[in-house]
Amino acid sequence: MKLAMKRALLATCAVAYATFALAQDIRIGTSSEPTSMDPHFHNLTPNNQIMAHIFEPLISMDAKQTIRPGLAESWKVIDDTTWEFKLRAGVKFHDGSDFGVDDVIATWARAPEVPKSPSNFSAYIRGKTIEKVDDLTFRIKTAGPEPLMLNHLAQFGIISRKNKDMTTEDYNSGKAASGTGPFKFSEYVAGDRVVLTRNDTHWGGKPTWGKVTFKSIKSDPTRVAALLSGDVDVIENVPTADAQRIKKDARLTTASALSNRVIYFHLDRHRDTTPFIKGKDGADIKNPLYDLRVRQALSKALNRPAIVERVMEGEAEPASQFIPESYAGTSKNLKPTAYDLDGAKKLLAEAGLPNGFKITIHGPNGRYTNDAKILEAAGQMWARLGLDVSVEAIPAANFFSRASTGGAGGVPEFSLFLVGWSAGTGEPSDSVKALTTTFDRSKGTGSANRGRYSNPKVDELLLAAIRTVDNAKRNAMLAEATEIAMNDVAIIPIHYPLNTWAAKKEFTITPRSDEYTLATSFGRK
Amino acid sequence: MLAFILRRAGQGLLVILAMVVIVFFGVNVVGDPVWILVSPDMTQDQIAEVSRSLGLDRPIWEQFFHFVGGILQGDLGRSFVHGTPAIRLILDRMPATIELALVALFLAVILGIPLGLFAGLKPDHPLSRGVMAVSILGFSLPTFWVGLMLIMVFAVMLGWLPATGRGDLGSFFGITTSLVTLDGWSHILMPAFNLALLKISLVIRLARAGTREVSLQDYIKFARAKGLSRSRIIGVHVLKNILIPIVTVLGLEFGSLVAFSVVTETIFAWPGMGKLLLEAIQRLDRPVIVAYVIIVVVLFVVINLIVDILYSLLDPRVRLSGAPA
Asked: What is the DSSP annotation of B236-300?
């Protein structure tokens, strides 16, 4: 009897202990996997989101991409080209050493120079000279005004000065993985998981989770099954096909945020005859995309609400510009172009093409949520306008290479094609600059302008905006540039996808607009 | 025997050379990896810099000779995406895949041979007909669908087995494997069965056909006339004779289990080389794709060699010789 009671008690204790341990753990199923544990090796969301737990940036961005103090506690603008930053005092690295300006200087030296990096952080660091004032104060000098200083400083994590000369392998093995972040590096099994443990002495207070496991589950149905079966507690990128069902499941909870990404069509504006548009008889015709009325007709013939409802199953919102209008620097005057097939047909007739033309539209397959399906839907909508449409969805590896340099003479190959663009800085200056300013290598403008749209007014406004430190003035210029580009149909925006997370019902989710999945976004009820 | 092995190794080298040329230039036709690698907001100059640092700005033949020069010094190049040596990446994930393939092979043998034997000995028994019907399903159902159904039933509905990933690792005589832990076995069962399904069906069919043929042979009749027990006739005389084709086929199939477990590994998020290959192809990570192909060719050459040796042990009439066949 006594023994039985003792056993029962032990069992209860064991169960209590197990649930206690579990209550502090969180297992997150991710749709991608990081390519490295080196915070400066690969500027890519799957890497950056995990690195953000271990290595913190100077400036932090909250769930809505609003600027917040990070390792830099405060800052002031000394003059147009000088900023002064004050670091948080008493911050320690995971290995116990003190954090100070020398670590920031070490990061400045390492981040742009990581060997063999497929995409490094030089864009945010080059042209910014750092000057130490004292152990916790430094100044950054730039050649010209840099209004996006804070946004840039939010993009990369700070490493310890001790690990300045460590290689990418040293970071992968955990040897150099000492940051100031809320979690410490514990284990990295490439292709499988990343395990982090709590940093009890984090300056922001003790994190909720004792242990965080990121499991990489690329296959959509498997990721959902892993959540349903309890293998993981939270998943990111809930597939649109399952979103409605998961929302109705009483055992689960979901949360979504409108992302900073726009899915849009780019149009060929650089060739008098474009290779994928022909007359209905198959003969070459003058590139009709030069004509504003044709571009407007294409935009009007797109039924955006139908794409959002049917193809995206409600997991998106119709788009009117580069990023949702809740962000700074967007135009409040622009509304998504309304579906108007008759109006579109009339415009096409006015442009001298009452019978339409033959066109092949292109897009990646598997790069953006439901990309190939959106392309097909758009193809059908344009067929209703009277065009002979062929749809070609191409694997991303092939698509981006062809879309950038696949045409004769190394120009973009396609005539009308679907792409996506996300604004990592949380405002539209990079979008306007990369997508709709004149393609000019020497100025670095129009780097992703695969339609080669060029409008001196947009160029002028954008170049002025990125040199204007005054927020209100800059945002007004960006909004104006956006309006000009959109009214000129430089691109045809379709929708902004929603980012959706799902978790067991005892968890809480704070959805983020930048597509980052962070352990700190989740809590327990 | 030695001449035989050397000749095989020579052939293997030629195949490797041919495959390297095909894959290297093939990947290049798909596209320029730099557009997949760079962050979209980089400027033209920064993109050009990445291209230069990875050597992608050189003409393709120059890249090829540089690569071959590296191979001669034992360097298969670094992954564009991971920045670590390609061969290291693959070898790191190889144990997980081999583990999966071994369990799948084991399932194919212990389920396939007895069922096939039974179906061959009693072809008209209703159970035999059932086995054969199921084996047709095993051949015709697509792997990814079966995988998802397994997950739905055993992980989501019944909750018996975990849905994804590899279990806890243990150490056995210095080999780190998940096959020595209970958690490991609970993780491996579903993917291994999914991978084995086709092979089980194959073995059933081979064993059944072999059994039906062998049971009519004179030596079986003689053994029966001699008064040998039924279990000895089946267990020794029938089994040994039907094993010859099965060993050959399974040997080759083991190679394909290791090399092409891509679908199963992706569905079950199994951290093996198949998943790595798929990702490498999606990201045009040429060094990894080429290194993978080299490893697979070596694997097949070695397996073929082992099969031939086993074959000669099972069937004394077969002799291995250095002379061309």
From this structure: IIIHHHHHHHHHHHHHHHHHHHHHT-HHHHHHTT--SHHHHHHHHHHTT-HHHHHHHHHHHHHHH
